[in-house]
Design a protein that fits this description.
heterodimer, A: about 250 residues, alpha/beta, Heat Shock Protein 90, nine-stranded mixed sheet, B: alpha/beta, Transcription Regulator spoIIAA, 2 domains, five-stranded mixed sheet, 10 strands, globular, binds zinc ion
Chain lengths: ~250, ~160
Amino acid sequence: MSKKDKRVIYLKDYVKGADSLEDKIIVGSDIRPGEAVNLAVENAPVQVVTNGFDEFRVVKIKDDVNKFLENPGESLIEVTEDISMRFHQTFFGNSNKSDFLAQVRQFLGNNKFRRVRDDIFLIADELFTNFAKSANDPAKSMKFGIDANDDTVVVFCRDHFGTLNPKDMLANMQRCFDKGVKNAIKQEEGKGAGIGSYLIYTLGVGLAITVDPGKGSLVLVWLPRTAHHEDRIEMNKSLIIIEAKES
Amino acid sequence: MAFEIKVSDLNGKKCFQFSGQIDEEAEFPKMDDMPSHVLVDLKDVKAINSVGIRAWIMWFGGYPQTQFSFLNCPKALVMQMNMVEGFLPVRSEVLSLEVPFFCEDCDKEKDVLFEVGKEISIEAGQVKLNFDKSTICDSGCDPELDVNELKYFRFLLEKASEQAA
Ligand SMILES: [Zn+2]
């Protein structure tokens, strides 16, 4: 990757007010998770990257967003032939969540996933709930997937109607970082837990939210397969928000 | 698995046994006569999601005068105790928790229950573990603690310093 890539801004070179960050890939080595969310809220759409390997990943996503939407796992990591490392499942607005989660749990039973199992299970629950709710139609279908290799596990959910709202998700995440989860919960109205996106973001080391209104949404998280939960939640996060421009 | 709370008596104390998944289906009952000290057995809790975390915090937060003692905390809840500030009620303690081990010799996961005051002690602001490895897997095996020891037990330290303050 050349440093001359016009889409990339290294945070150390960024001059506030002089450069626009909009639609740029911001690369910094020590952007804390809450700070990455603030950057994304202030400069959407934006991609915030916190390590060299992710810079390469994000450029790849930006180069071919459609490929990323069609085969999210494969476009980010090298997938293996090993079927025990791959779980793809279509579900509908009216699918039973317990049945879905039982299949996810069975897949994650493999001890290769022992350090990410509980977290991926929680992410699967959040994604299923969020997508099924936003479908608002029992017949609409969505795809959930887990793709893994020795290093990385990618978890994603994809629909073909694009009703997710990245701004809401970012605002919820920002509230949790600013006020703390307990206070965010207390101030929340209604029964929905606005902490779902915060959890998904915190449990992974990279979160991509791609929305083309009316056409499709994708939420994708990647996690290092062997890092312990308690180390992973403290790691810096990459955050990628791609919204199709209104045409 | 649907969430359920069973109430029993344990050593003269009221004990709530939680089981199943703590999610949007989980109903936490309103208790008119919550005792001043309650044991909460979490052994059969399978998972928790964001709606469950919210319900948990709101329910326990509704009984600020009660001391809750948590038993048999599964890993999925220990993670929340470490990650979500305020997950453990203000007046609470954790008496025992699940600690994951992995044995490379037999390629097996072994979850072992550790008790605070027995296998786990807090000395001079640090968590000390004292356990017999040979009882965890088959004889001749060398199972490894499958967490970051310094961070997995951190919520215990935070609770201890909170209570000391
Ligand atoms: Zn063994």
